[in-house]
Design goal:
single chain; 10 strands; alpha/beta; 25% strand; two-stranded antiparallel sheet
Length: 211
């Protein structure tokens, strides 16, 4: 990324605009939380927060001209993509805490070209098993895009163990090792982008079989 462009992206936008819906009105987030420079992170039009808009920005920056043929699957309750960007897009929320959506049973190996998920791995009972399962669903040119609660903040992954459905993880910079990316022969690239609403910079993790 060009240095000047990177610097511009790290600054709060003069006129915040939601890149998911075009909304220009923002308010406090959950619990009254404010974002970078005390800007409200909550888009009042579509309800998105920083992590959703950053996910959408990275997707558009990297694959904006290469989405219209893809079959997409958006997991969980938060989405960092517009379903209209894809040839076909399904949404699959989880119905049981700690588990991937039951709807995944209806998809065959190699049948999905894009999978997107936000702050979902942190709460899975068996995250490595879930990761391998999602990789099997990806087509050869498929992409798994994940927004984690910033793994840059800690060196090692920490796990709060509990009964099924109550696990909580804080991923660290050992993320690729923890998920066994080498063993699964999957590449990981981390991309940072600024939220067009607040200017806060967050990482987005992209896993893929092919360059």
């Amino acid at each position: 990324m060009d240095t000047q462009l990177a610097l511009e992206r790290m600054q709060a936008p003069a006129t915040p605009v939601c890149n998911l819906c075009g909304g220009k009105e923002f308010g406090p987030g959950p619990g009254g939380r404010l974002g970078k420079d005390q800007l409200g992170p909550h888009c009042l039009a579509c309800g998105s927060l920083e992590r959703q808009r950053v996910g959408a920005r990275v997707l558009q920056d990297l694959h904006g001209g290469d989405l219209e043929w893809r079959r997409a699957l958006l997991l969980g309750t938060e989405h960092g993509a517009d379903p209209r960007w894809f040839a076909h897009c399904d949404a699959a929320p989880s119905v049981r805490a700690g588990s991937l959506p039951d709807a995944l049973a209806g998809y065959g190996a190699g049948s999905i070209d894009f999978i997107g998920m936000i702050h979902m791995f942190e709460y899975l009972d068996r995250d490595r098993e879930a990761f391998a399962r999602l990789l099997r669903l990806l087509s050869p040119r498929g992409v798994l895009q994940v927004c984690f609660a910033d793994p840059r903040a800690r060196p090692w992954t920490a796990i709060q163990v509990g009964p099924p459905g109550s696990v909580r993880r804080w991923y660290g910079r050992d993320l690729a090792r923890h998920l066994r990316c080498d063993e699964l022969r999957v590449d990981l690239h981390v991309h940072e982008a600024a939220d067009p609403g607040t200017g806060v910079v967050l990482p987005v993790h992209i896993f893929h079989h092919q360059p």
